[in-house]
Amino acid sequence: MHWGAHTVHLGKCNPLPVAPPYDPQSDSSVSLLPHLEAKIRQTHSLARLLTKYAEQLLEEYVRHQGDPFGLPGFSPPRLPVAGLSAPAPTHAGLPVRERLRLDAAALDALPGLLDAVRRHQAELNPSAPRLLRRLEDAARQARALGAAVDTVLAALGALGARGPGPEPAAAAAATVTNTAAGIFSAKVLGLRVCGLYGEWVSRTEGDLGQLVPGGLA
Amino acid sequence: MMDVCLWWRQPSRMVDNRRTKMSPNFRWLLSVLTLLHLIMQINSQKRGVLRDLKCTTNNLQVWDCAWKAPLGASHGTVNEVCIEDRFHSCHRLEKTNIKIPALSPGDHEVTINYLHGFESSPSKFILNEKNVSLIPDPPEILNLSADFPTSTLHLKWNDKGSAFPPHSDAVWEIKVLRKPSMELVKLMSFNTTLSGKDIVHHWNWTSDLPLECATHYVGIRRYIDCHHFSGRKEWSDWSLLKNISWTPNSETKAFPQDKVILVGSNITFCCVSQTKVLSGQIGKTFCPLIHLHGESVAIHIQNISVSENSGTNVVFTTEDNVYGTVVFAGYPPDVPQKLNCETHDLKEIICSWNPGKPTGLVGPRNTNYTLFESFSGKYVIFERFETLTNESYQLLFQMLPNQEIHNFTLTGRNPLGQAESTILVNITERVSPRTPTSLKVKDINSTVVTLSWHLPGNFAKINLLCQIEIYKDNSKQELRNVAIKGVEDSSYIVAVDKLNPYTIYTFRIRCSTETFWKWSKWSNEKQHLTVEAIPSKAPDTWREWSSDGKNLIIFWKPLPISEANGKILSYNVSCSSHEETQSLSEILDPQHKAEIQLDKNDYIISVVAKNSVGSSPPSKIASMEIPNDDLKVEQAVGTGKRILLTWHHDPNMTCDYVIKWCNSSRSEPCLMDWKKVPSNSTETVIESDQFQPGVRYNFFLYGCRNQGYQLLRSIIGYIEELAPIVAPNFTVEDTSADSILVKWEDIPVEELRGFLRGYLFYFQKGERDMPKMRSLESGHSDIKIKNITDISQKTLRIADLQGKTSYHLVLRAYTDGGLGPEKSMFVVTKENSVGLIIAILIPVAVAVMVGVVTSVLCYRKREWIKETFYPDIPNPENCKALQFQKSICEGSNALKTLEMNPCTPNNVEVLESRSIVPKIEDTEIISPVAECPEESEADPENHVVVSYCPPIIEEELANPAADEAGGTSQVVYIDIQSMYQPQAKPEEEADIEPVVVAAVAGYKPQMRLPINSAVEETAAEDDTDKTAGYRPQVNVNTWNLVSPDSPRSTDSNSEVVSFGSPCSINSRQFLIPPKDEDSPKSSGGGWSFTNFFQNKPND
Predict the structure, then answer these.
(1) Gap from A64 CA to chain B (nearest CA, Å)
(2) Which residues does B854 contact at the CB level (< 8 Å), separation at least 6?
(3) Cα–chain center distance at B160
């Protein structure tokens, strides 16, 4: 009974062909489904929580960068971040598993970038412990969320099909802490990283929401 | 020759002239000479003479002389130059210049002769070093580099000093030009001294505009001042310009990047852009753009303020992007303050300081401190990103063996500068030991313990000074210093003596060095109880004989802890006489008394206290009490909780004095406490926490004589007197009409609370329900006070009182502590009977006498009275009733008054006879009153009508039936007044029985009718009633009640019936109306003065 309901839900939300682990004919997958559903719910809840934390992180970050950061008319350029791209506009049109793969890849790159931002901010704002703690937490939470999404992907049987991995975290972090580019650029890049963190976490929440029974929570 | 010299010398002269102020004459002369010179030039050219021989040198070794060829000479013309020098050399050459070695000082003749057909004469010049100009070669810039982050140019060049004599002065001039306008942004010069060798020089310059913002060019020239060269010295040409330009990369376009500057300075930021820059701002403040070149712009910031931690953002916004940089405005490090170096253990030195004023810079820009020790050359670095606020910084410096003197220099550096402090210390004098630990206490005996503790540190070469704090309960702390030889990381032990046995002590310790610098912190406290010792003193003993005199009660005080030296377990009491010593059983603590049955022999009682270690010395006291016949009781008052007792010295008292005291209300033998004082004392202060104010105590002073005690003085006293808490209970013993005898009782001692000083007695008139006697002390005039200071007096007679008067009596007692409460009583004095009798008799006698006199007078003068007030025939002229004005009667028949004419005499008709015959005869007078036929018709039988002028007035009986029932003769008067008087309502009148106006026949007095309105008349009548003896009879009601047969007017306009004439003296009624309406009702039966004037019917 439970299996049947779950199968119907997945078939309704996921436009992709049903992956082998979800094959209702497969006996081995029957025992995984309740666990998978719980895992998806858990991961979705985590993503939702991190979305809220990401907003707080962004506010805290902007608050410590000085004017004109945070002023209404100030819109710094959306600098490209090595190893981490912004969610593409076409992201929503991709299959769920593909989206989750992109989410996982971004979440995999984010901790290194957030760590680099934290180190830079530790030099720039050593007297802002809350900002530094939020950055540290964000890196750890992004890592945890990425691992959780990986688990979901693995349960979906799509982990192996994960797209090209991000650049090594060290290389990405080096971009952030490149002092030759100037502190202002580092501030802007940190802002960008914090923004991307929020975007990807939010995107992950949305993508997972489509897998949660009942649709988008 | 003269021309040449003149030419050589002329410019310099001209220069000199330019340099000096020329007078007008001199100018004129100069103009003439110039003109002459020009003429000569022209002539010489015409003649083919050489011109403009000029010699220069760039190294003082070779002179380069050049001249201008004469006119007509072609290129390649050979000429010969001969120089009269040491060798008199001649040179053939085809050019117009020649380089010759520097000539020796002095004039040298130079001859230039053109050969081969050129027809000219040889030209001769006098050449001197003074005519040679020293023009050095332009300097060569070896290198020009830029430090873009600091906007600094570094210039490097070679002075080529080897070409000139050593010690020659060189002046360098450097210019910096900036594109695009090649404006000169910097020109500066400086001097050097040439050393005879080629030296490379450096020059740095920091641009106010970031070097990235524009290309900068640098050129240099020089001026060599060779002291041995007497010729002219000139600047060299400028060197070739070298430039510095920035190669833009893709990222950075705003400059300078991340610069640290001093707060308050000015700075220019630029943005190198290919697109149009829309705005430039610092923080949230937008600044005007300064165009540089192309699309590049700059903004200039003046007096920049301190930045926040993350710096101040400078942002340029272009059409498609945003470029920015960050500037950090702060301060250079402040001089480190309160630099102090000390050691805890002589192993490492701790230097601490206060950073002083904050720099505003954090992170990598924060101040780094370096602590450098100059003797050892060692240093340590303090580096921290955060800026500590209100916190001292410190660095640890590892000590070197055997180095005591240290010279520390602390240098703080940040990008804006540095500051330093120094301190020279002998570290052995800067020891602040760590806190001693592991403090232990060990007993040696009852008064000595040892303390041991551990103190880490390398103190082997110094002595320590430690301080032991000894604290004992209820006593002041004691500090003892002890010097100890220091050791290496070891424990220390000292003995502490002079302690008390069986006492709890609290120890703690701290240490320093002999060369005191600082104490360590106190160690933890250690509490210790010393061991016991035998009691050091005998108990304080006293004895009292029991009330029956058979037993002796021994009292002793427990030994204080300082004398008990342990826990007292028991007491031994013994009794000895000359014959024997009797020891009683052991009395356990805490019992502190024993009762012994003794005979009257003299005994010595001994008390010994015992603890676990031993017994105290015995305390002895004699049982004998020496009598004293001369004993007086005295009084004393103390202060606070103490009382001072004094006595005279008695040489017979050989041992001591004992003062014992007790509460006076306690039964004998009473003993609260006692105190022993030496025999040489004459006073003592008794103090006890048990003393309470307002309580009477008995104090007894005993003197010790030959081992026997004699009571010397007995004192009653108070620590503090209070006011009595009760009022004296008093009663009234006797009361008379003018005095009261009061008696009161004593107040009990417990309630008196002080020595009685007297009574205050207050009295005043007052009833019981009156408010209490208030403000007794305020001195009300009606309150009388008697102060009774004789406290033995127990009665008081209050005299001069009024009889039968209530008096309020109040009695209060007082002490020095104040007035006690009051007790009050109300007493009424007795009545004075004689006075009362007199008061009654006198008015009665006076009244009787007045009555008798009046009666006699009235009797004797009755005729006169009658004539005066009640004449038999009234005078009509005096009758106001007959004086109505005509106008009043006009218009109404009802208002017709009596008209004297043509009235016919009245008829008197007797309708009925009674046993009591009315005295109609008296009223049978002839009156000119017309007969009223209507009236007769109305009731012809029952009426006796006496009418004056009734024709126009109808009189009828209101109630004929009543008349019939009455059956009495009635005299009906015609109502005259009723025409004017508004009366009661008709309904009411109907209920009223017809009244008889006059129960007797006779003349009815005529009513006087005033002309005023009825209301006014009523008022007037009232007044008249009060003033006139004669009264018109107006009170109708009065009359109505007299007789039910009274006639009644039925005239509708006349509602009130009025009877009688005021002029008549025959009225049977009392002429003066009664005060109230009830009086007439009782007039028939009551006694009245009117009876005196009322005629008897038979008269």
Answers:
(1) 7
(2) none
(3) 83
Interchain CB distance below 8 Å, B313 and A122: no
pLDDT computed for residue B355 by the predictor: 87
Task: Let me know: does B997 contact B1068? Beta carbons within 8 Å.
Answer: no
When CB atoms are compared, the residue of B322, B326, B362 closest to A127 is B362
CB-based contacts of B729: which residues, under 8 Å, 6+ apart?
Answer: B744, B745, B823
Contacts of B325 in chain A (CB under 8 A): 182-184
- Integer CA distances (angstroms), A145 to A130, A165, B7, B473, B1097, in order: 22, 16, 98, 66, 145
* Single-letter code of the amino acid located at A129: P
Residue from B363, B250, B313, B272 nearest A191 by CA: B313
Q: B387 and A68: CB-CB below 8 Å?
A: no
B594-651: per-residue pLDDT in tens? 888 887 778 889 999 999 989 999 998 888 888 888 888 888 898 878 888 888 888 8
Write the residue in B257, B308, B310 that is nearest to A182 by C-beta: B257
Which of chain A's residues have a Cβ under 8 Å away from the Cβ of B309?
64, 124-128
Task: Please give the model's pTM, rounded to 2 decimal places.
Answer: 0.54
CA angle (B887, B889, B892) in 5-degree steps:
120
β-strand pairing of B259-262 with B322-330: parallel
Contacts of A69 in chain B (CB under 8 A): 313
Find which of A67, A75, A132 to mutate to test the B interface (most B CBs within 10 Å of its CB).
Answer: A67
Rounded distance, CA B840 to CA B110, Å?
180
Instruction: Specify the amino acid at residue B28.
Output: W
Name the more confident of A178 and A212: A212
- CA B283 and chain centroid, separation: 45
Tokens of B792: 């033995």
- Inter-chain touch B322–A65, beta carbons under 8 Å: no
pLDDT, tens only, A69-97: 888 888 887 777 877 888 887 777 888 88
CA atoms within 13 A on the CB side of B1080: 22
Q: Cβ contact (<8 Å) for B254 and A124?
A: no
- Which helix (H) or strand (E) segment is A53 a member of? helix A32-63
Q: Does A182 touch chain B (CB under 8 A)?
A: yes
The predicted structure's pLDDT at residue B680: 86
Q: What is the model's pLDDT at position B468?
A: 94
Interface list for A 65-84 with B (CB within 8 A):
65-69, 71, 74-77
Binary contact (B315, A124; C-beta < 8 A): no
Chain B from 217 to 256: CB within 8 A of any A CB: 251-252, 254
Which B residues 252-271 touch A at CB under 8 Å? 252, 254, 257-258
Q: How far is B166 from chain A (nearest CA, A)?
A: 47
d(CA B339, CA B799): 97
Is B309 an 8 Å CB contact of chain A?
A: yes
Q: What is the pLDDT of residues A184-201, one digit of tens each?
A: 888 888 998 999 999 899
As a whole number of angstroms, the distance between CA B915 and CA B901 comes to 37
Query: Alpha helix (H) ranges present in A64-182?
Result: 96-124, 129-156, 169-176
CA B546, CA B667: separation in Å to the nearest integer? 11
Q: Low-confidence residues of chain B, pLDDT below 50?
A: 1-22, 44-49, 885-899, 912-1099
Task: In whole angstroms, give the CA distance from residue B817 to residue B723.
Answer: 5
**3-class secondary-structure state, position B529:** strand
Probe site for chain A from B313, B325, B383 (most A CB atoms < 10 A): B313
| Inter-chain residue contact B385 with A124, CB threshold 8 Å | no
Q: Measure Cα distances from B745 to A91, B703, B729, B791 in Å.
A: 116, 38, 6, 11
